[in-house]
Amino acid sequence: MGKIFCLMGKSSTGKDTIYKMLRDEKALQLQTIVPYTTRPIRAGAEGVEYHFIDEQRLLKLEKEGKVIEQRAYDTIYGIWRYATIADGQVNLSEHSYLLIGTLAVYTQLCAYYGKDAIVPIYIEVEDGLRLQRALDRERMQDKPKYTELCRRFLADDADFAEEALEKAGITRHFENDNLQKTVEEIAAFVLSYNG
């Protein structure tokens, strides 16, 4: 039976980069789950990191009973919603999967698929380095959203509080102070579930 490896961590811990490296590691044989969002498109293509939809489409999917998990962020630009949709992407009898999520995503996936099917991978980076990375990334955007960057940075402390991680049963942390080494550690961790 396959697993869903849920990659989590505060903003700017390197989740996107680690995700891409794990996804491309052929020995892991991980499929991807592309989440849905109502947020404006950031640099990137439709269907690669996200499916970009509007509120009406998300409401329709919800009415059809296809929303596995959903979360909303009240940003300075309005409410941005993110969701995992039962759209045929997941078949745990044939594959294992990799996705990026939050602690709320992890717990909701556990409720939907069962705790045994979901494996948490929690990434950490020292806060000063995270803030610098976030600032560097935001500067590259056509219209940097610095206020939203600050809101997310502060919200992460509550969202990923140590008590919340422990309550969810997440005790293993991967320190991303050396990208290649971190990816190798996570890859070995993933392979331990396939053996």
Characterize the structure shown.
- This protein has about 200 residues and is α/β, with parallel strands linked by helices.
- It has helices at about 15-25, 55-65, 105-115, 125-140, 145-160, 160-165, 180-195; strands at about 5-10, 30, 35, 50, 65-75, 80-85, 95-100, 120-125, 175.
- The mean pLDDT is about 90.
Largest sheet: 5 strands, parallel
Strand content: 15-25%
Summarize the helix and strand pattern as letters. EHEEEHEEEHEHHHEH
CA radius of gyration: 16 Å
Mean pLDDT: 91
Helix content: 40-55%
* Main sheet strand line-up: 2-7-1-8-9
Please mark out the parts with pLDDT under 50 across 5 or more consecutive residues, or reply none: none
Distance between the termini: 12 Å
Any descriptors?
five-stranded parallel β-sheet; alpha/beta; single chain; four-stranded mixed β-sheet; 7 helices; 195 residues
What is the topology?
Layout lengths: L3 E6 L5 H10 L5 E3 L3 E2 L13 E2 L2 H9 L3 E9 L2 E8 L10 E5 L2 H11 L4 E7 L2 H13 L6 H14 L2 H6 L5 E3 L3 H16 L1
Parallel strand pairs: 1-7, 1-8, 2-7, 3-4, 8-9
Antiparallel strand pairs: 3-6, 5-6
Brief write-up:
It contains seven helices and nine strands; from the N terminus they run βαβββαβββαβαααβα. It is α/β, with parallel strands linked by helices and 195 residues long. The chain is globular and about 45 Å long.
